[in-house]
Amino acid sequence: MKKNMLLLVATFLMSFTFNANAQVNAEKAEDFIKSTTAKGVEEIINANVSDAEKDKRFYDLLNGALDMDFIGQFVLGRNWRTATPTQRADFIKVYRDLNIKTWSKRFNEFKGKNFVFKGTSPSTSKGQVFVDTEVPMDQGAPAKVLWRVREKGNDYKIVDIVIEGVSLAQASRSEYTSFIKNNPGGLDALIKDLTDRLNKL
Amino acid sequence: MYNLKKLAFLSVVFITTACATNIHRNDTDADPYENINRKIFAFNDNVYENVFFPIAKGYRKVTTPFIRERVNSFIANIDEPISAVNHLLQLEPLAALKNITRIAINSTLGLAGTFDVAQGWGLPPEETTFNQTMASWCVADGPYVVLPFLGGRNIRGTVGMAVDAVADPVFWATYHDANISAKIQYPYAALKYTAKAENYMDLYNDFKKNSVDFYATMRSAYLQSQKQLKCRFAPEETTASYDFDFDEEWEE
Lengths: 201, 252
Known about the structure:
Helix content of chain A is 62%, strand content 18%. Chain A is an alpha+beta fold. Chain A has one domain (26-200): Tgt2/MlaC (Nuclear Transport Factor 2, Chain: A), CATH 3.10.450.710. Chain A has a five-stranded antiparallel sheet. Chain B starts with a helix and ends in a 25-residue tail after the last helix. In chain B, strand 1 and strand 2 (151-154) form a beta hairpin. The interface between A and B is large, with 38 and 39 residues.
């Protein structure tokens, strides 16, 4: 009997540890998205500061919130493996700057709107969770925006944004892979194209 | 009537062809006609930039957001019976009933559909299409094709769009009299597509400006949106369509 009890306790403890390892703290992940979006809306979009200051604040906020190294590596797909260390570094740098600038512009048009938090949904990837939000539209049904969050210790980072079921990371991967495949200049041509776009912004 | 029969026949042929095709794993597999598709895509882009969008900009200039919202509501109300029928075909009678209630409320209290009163009463719009009906009955998607003017869709989506267009209440209401048909159908179609172009223009331009391969971006967004559609006979999926494994090696 004693042995059985011990076994039960051991199983319980083991399952608990297993769950604790496998499951991300969804509440903390949601709080992270709440505070990131609130900062974006209150301290940048609605703030009465110069455009240069807004750009700077957006850069700091998004650079801290988005895991650009992780996403950048993913969007290059198999081309990441064959890339040289210089190409990798150059790509991540321009990818980071371009994305942050583009998203700053998009968020800036977000004035007057707000995210409505709808809880979280699980991901099959370890240490990741989707934070579900809705954005009320001027007309029609609200837009569904999901934030894919990756937990790393006590740190949380956004690794994908899913708008109406469309993952931006997947779309970027498809786009970049196609560009590299159809362009004789390959990855270098991609880096150059992205740099030109960044300089035009 | 002959044309309708022909269309119905073609739809069956298309659906049968689509059924024979498996669900595709990646974007390139789903797009066997990429070369020709890209050419039509470039043609469409030219048409949008030089014809549709200038008209949409003109429309934006002569209207206020308030007026445009009334126009969008009016069109959505006319289209809502299509959603009602499709919900019935998907065996979703409650959703169909919601559509019908919305039509009743919005057509009367909403002043001929120009105001979405029903949404304020807790009945938000629930739109669905014949493409979604076919997907729910497990009709396979088929290859991705870009049609002149109309853009990129898989075969199932193309058939769905054609069926929804034929089911358009304005088409049926004016079908019997060629005279009335010309007076109502064409101006209505012009208004509908102008309003549509005005709605999509900004998003289209944003995607275009920020893509190194605009064609691939649009294709990926479309194919991803189709992956979400569920088939009623398939086993319940535990993974959401957008929940991929970042570490998995993908074939591209």
